[in-house]
Specification:
Blueprint (H helix, E strand, L loop, with lengths): L10 H24 L4 H7 L4 E4 L5 E7 L8 E5 L5 H5 L5 H10 L3 E3 L2 E9 L5 E15 L4 E5 L10 E4 L8 E5 L4 E5 L7 E3 L4 E9 L3 E13 L2 E7 L6 E4 L7 E6 L6 E5 L7
Parallel strand pairs: 4-15, 7-16, 8-12
Antiparallel strand pairs: 1-2, 2-5, 3-4, 3-7, 5-12, 6-11, 6-13, 8-9, 9-10, 13-14, 13-15, 16-17
Length: 274
Amino acid sequence: MSEAGGPHSNPSFRDRARRYWKYLIGVLVAFGVLGAIGSRVVDSVFHHAEQTIHPENALIVSAREEPVDGSDGFGLAARSPTGLDARLGRADGCTKLLKLGRQAGASNIGFDSVDLVVEGGTGRGVSIVDMRAHVLKRTPALTGALIGCQSAGAMDAIGMGFDLSDSEPPARRILSFYDGRLGKPYFDHGKIIRLTKGEIVPVAVVGYPGDEYVEWEILADVVIDGKTKEIVINDHGSPFRVTAGRTHYQRYYEYLWSANPRRMWMSDKPSPGG
């Protein structure tokens, strides 16, 4: 297994990643505690997700690309700064800037974190026996514009990781989130995820793009009544998108929430705190 590229070339965005990971694990812990209540928890807590019912209603999968709330810090990159001044200049906070950046087609930087919640939909039970990433497109990393908000904090975590520099990488254990080191395949030696009806399992998935821009989706092999079916997990019918971080961009956008007064930074140079 080749070692994936580090989450960020820009140190300030590594700090933002640490802050976000702390937020993500908090969400997953909440799901773990509340999961036994049933699918209504997914509907109420995970209402932004795309919910897909797979073959014979045996498996319900909800997928959400993080972050969805910019208040904990984030970093996005756009292919070109054209038109972004007018669009992003309307942001009045980090969450609004995140939303406008997403609408402009900006992608996560350095790593792509996806929340999955899988729920068994049949009393016969269903087993996930393998997961892998399917790379749909790769180009040079994006350098048009850097969009983000500052943050701080840290927390280590273990989840499934994909080295997206490979064409169809298997899900692997994460040895180090911050520098993208991955271990053995998660589903090695017969390991499976088995769900009975109404049982909910949250899964944290992280894709590392190496040195490129990557569009990707997740393929999972699911066993129902002894038959294996392949299902596709993506972002509302579109691929997940992530780009490697770069040192320099054509244009920089940041909501300075700690400034007095708070304001948008739009410049050909990084903000003083960037």
